Amino acid sequence: MLSKLRANLIYLATMLVMGFAIYYFALNPNSPLKKPAAPNVSAAAFFNSKLVNEDGLSQDLMQYQGKVIVLNFWATWCPPCREEMPELSELHTQYQTNNVVVIGLAVDELSLVKEFAEASPVSYPLLVGEDEGMQLASDFGNNQGVLPYTVIIGQDGKVLKTYFGRISKALLSDALKPILQD
Questions:
Q1: pLDDT in tens, 74-97
Q2: Per-residue pLDDT tens digits for 116-171
Q3: Does residue 99 carry a catalytic annotation?
Q4: 174: CATH
Q5: Which residues, 6 or more positions from 15, have their beta carbon under 8 angstroms from its beta carbon?
């Protein structure tokens, strides 16, 4: 009886340690294994792209050059992506007069994004790019293929910050303050 209890405790302890390790190294947005984008990563590929919006209309991304961009990679099937969208909408509304734009880049099918946008409208532009979107996310340092993934691009076109996983308006506001003071 005692050996069975000991075996169960060892099993439980092992599961707890493994769960913590998986969270800390794989799921945690600030994991030491997840490297941020290099400080000199350029957004040139982004600005040279043309993607469609949720209505299927082609958008030249050069129109955003010279702005501070909060670029959020997301998908309709991603619960954390959908959860952060109201806060991104508020952030876009609050900062749009400060030359800041939030852009949602869906790594998804156009029809699903259109349906989602009709049911849950946001105040910021939504773009759609299935394969091209994932390539852009990778170019911006998303070496994990994680969604949501958020990138802050400065007015000079350089990547300033990257975030794996769900973000908040407060986190982004704190990140934008020093950028807008420069």
A1: 999 999 999 999 999 999 999 999
A2: 999 999 999 999 998 899 999 999 999 888 999 999 999 999 999 999 999 999 99
A3: no
A4: 3.40.30.10
A5: none
pLDDT of amino acid 38: 45
Q: What is the CA radius of gyration of the chain?
A: 19
- Give the pTM: 0.79
Cα separation of 164 and 174, whole Å? 16
Q: Is residue 81 annotated as a catalytic residue, yes or no? A: yes
Provide the 10 A C-beta neighbour count for residue 101.
18
C-alpha to C-alpha distance for 129 and 112, rounded to whole angstroms: 12
Residue identified by tokens 């092992």 is: 14
Instruction: Clarify whether residues 120 and 150 are in a common domain.
Output: yes
Residue of 81, 106, 113, 146 marked active site: 81
Asked whether residue 67 falls in the same domain as residue 123, the answer is yes
The residue whose two tokens read 């020093």 is 178
Catalytic residue among 37, 71, 78, 91: 78
Number of domains present in the structure of the chain: 2
What are the C-alpha distances in Å from 58 to residues 19, 53, 139? 44, 7, 21
Full domain range(s) for residue 5: 1-33
Half-sphere exposure of 130 (CA within 13 A, CB side): 6
Q: Are residues 19 and 84 in the same domain?
A: no
